[in-house]
Amino acid sequence: MVSPAIALAFIPFVVTLLIRYRHYFCLFYRAVLVRRVRDYLTGIPKEERAFQYVLTHTIPGDPQHILETFDHWSYHCEYLSNLGPQKAKILERLIYEKAPLRVLELGTYCGYATILIAQLLPLGARLYTVEMDERKAAVAEKVIRLAGFDDDTVELIRGPSQEVIPQLKEKYGLSHVDFIFMDHWKRCYLRDLQLLEAHDLLLEGATIVADNIIFPGAPHFMQYVKACGKYKWRIHRTSLQYFRAIPDGVAQLTWTGLQ
Ligand SMILES: C[S@@+](CC[C@H](N)C(=O)[O-])C[C@H]1O[C@@H](n2cnc3c(N)ncnc32)[C@H](O)[C@@H]1O
Predict the structure, then answer these.
(1) How far is the CA of 228 from the centre of ligand 1 (A)?
(2) Domain for residue 151, yes or no?
(3) Is residue 89 part of a domain?
(4) Which residue of 11, 99, 127, 219 is surrounded by the most CB atoms within 10 Å?
(5) What is the rounded CA–CA span in Å between residue 132 and residue 49?
(6) Tens-digit pLDDT profile for residues 20-56
């Protein structure tokens, strides 16, 4: 049995922890607890609820308006792990600068970054986006079509990245990519980067953008990038989507072509 005096001594420690990490608790509350309760009460998955809101509040065929509607939902209703408006500016600038023709996105989710990228692509460019979760892919498909993009501009590939990447050349006719946006599970970043290298999919000078490099972080991926000598890299410091108080970063790599 813990004596009341010892228990009392812990109170300042617990209070300090709660104050210091309040934003992370808030994230856990919004992203996990609220989601579970609403999933249970409505019987509809969170991403489908978000889509129903977007469908009734947005202008079809206007990708920018769809993005704003998603942002409104994520700020005011339920947290979604979309790229969000701050990081969108970083990605937007890079797409403008690089004007890529063959883009690969790993982790489509609801299609937020997909339509952000697709609306900025030069004429004749194509975006391949990979999602392994069938329910999320179904929502993304509806969002992509709602934004007005057809199969020639955006191809949604259903399946885990580790199975899709080795098939990109033969099955999807994608000989090389010049821009990659990695935003799937962070533990897959390193494996998939090495898969892209092994299957000779990276065009010299290709840009790879990897989200959530600080929170939750991808330390093995960054260690490899820094040590292997095959990439030039930099980190764009920003904050977690829809949580300005939680620091995060987006990594920008350039493939030098050196094996
Ligand atoms: C953070 S969300 C992506 C957000 C999206 N890029 C956006 O900005 O709107 C991560 C998504 O990656 C998907 N995912 C995770 N690991 C994957 C893998 N190995 N292959 C394909 N999809 C994956 C998850 O199902 C989830 O939908």
Answers:
(1) 26
(2) yes
(3) yes
(4) 127
(5) 20
(6) 889 999 999 999 999 999 999 999 999 999 999 999 9
Q: Output the residue whose Cα is nearest ligand 1's atom 2.
A: 109
pLDDT tens profile 50-99: 999 999 999 999 999 999 999 999 999 999 999 999 999 999 999 999 99
pLDDT digits (tens, 9 = 90+) for 117-161: 999 999 999 999 999 999 999 999 999 999 999 999 999 999 999
Task: For ligand 1, say whether the CB of 81 is within 6 Å of any of its atoms.
Answer: yes
Ligand 1 pocket mutation, candidates 163, 182, 183, criterion most atoms within 8 A of CB: 183
Separation of alpha carbons 160 and 139, rounded Å: 17
Residue 191 one-letter amino acid: R
ipTM above 0.85, yes or no: yes
* DSSP β-ladder status, 102-106 and 177-182: parallel
Same domain membership, residue 35 and residue 92? no
What Rg do the C-alpha atoms of the chain give, in angstroms?
Answer: 20
